[in-house]
Amino acid sequence: MQADLDKILFDRDRIARRVSELAREISRDLDELPQDGEIVLVSILTGSIIFVADLIRQLPQKLRIELITVNSYPGRSTRSQGATLVGTAVENVAGKHVLIVDDILDSGGTLRLIQAELASRNPRSIRTCVLLRKQRPSAFEIPCEYVGFDIPDIFVVGYGLDYNNYYRNLPDIGTLRPEVMLPDAPPGGPP
Ligand code: 5GP
Ligand code: MG
After folding, report:
1. Nearest CA among 152, 125, 10 for reference residue 115
2. Distance 102 CA to ligand 1 centre (A)
3. CB under 6 Å to ligand 1: residues?
């Protein structure tokens, strides 16, 4: 699996150091929030699982975890906005301080949808944290208080990020060798 990587962008030690810095920053900010609302951390599945697992163990605050899946094709419908949210997070944010955590901010479509939906449920506050942000103009339009690393507009895997649902368990983040991404080559096979 490791051999399928072309270049490593961030190895596990660098990621761990940055996650600790982010946790310290988030933790400081959470302590400054008015103490009149619970903290709810909303993890965007599936890509954020590793990042969230590492991050939350460095947040000493009392908080709840909610999970959201973005379903791009709800049922058989082909609705114009193309995506809906699945999970109980949406119902459980009213009056709470919400921290959205995702793996990567790319076009911004996912976070735009999630922020709008959660904001419409009257939370006390909303903040967003991503491990990676791609250098795309639309990504910078999304309010995001915590960013681990800014990266070029390239496709990366590892540390939760997948290709065809593989490679999430790689401890480092990197690019794939082009030949493993061919449609007729492993690991994906034909779509
Ligand atoms: P957006 O809606 O911002 O375009 O994309 C966000 C989602 O697309 C991310 O949560 C992630 O699941 C997926 N994604 C975007 N860029 C990459 C990438 O470079 N690698 C992987 N593995 N997933 C990506
Ligand atoms: Mg995702």
Report:
1. 125
2. 9
3. 47, 102-110, 155-157, 161-163
